[in-house]
Write a structure and sequence with these properties.
Blueprint: H1 11-14, E1 39-41, E2 48-52, E3 58-62, E4 68-72, E5 81-84, E6 89-90
Antiparallel strand pairs: 1-4, 2-5, 3-4, 5-6
């Protein structure tokens, strides 16, 4: 390949879109997360206010719109419990 040459990929192949899951309050959901990039968790219409999980298993940050950015630090499965300002809970 010469300098300046490149391959164009369709946007869907380069960056997969978000997956949405409907759930009831206090539901238990399974999710696969990236170990190399932050994962954004959004609960529509809610502000995530608390995250509980095993010590040293992940890093977390919140966004201005109430979402959670989380990056696992371990290859082991673990459970997170999320709570929102509106009283929604999910693990």
């Amino acid at each position: 390949m010469t300098a300046g040459a490149g391959v164009a990929l369709p946007a869907a192949a380069a960056v997969p879109g978000p997956a949405g899951t409907m759930f009831e309050n206090n539901a238990h959901l399974k999710a696969q997360m990236s170990n190399t990039s932050p994962n954004k968790i959004i609960i529509d219409g809610e502000l995530i206010t608390a995250v509980t999980g095993p010590d040293n298993a992940y890093t977390k940050a919140t966004t201005a719109d109430g979402a959670l950015l989380i990056t696992p630090l371990t290859g082991q499965d673990f459970t997170l419990f999320l709570e929102t300002a509106g009283g929604v809970g999910v693990s």
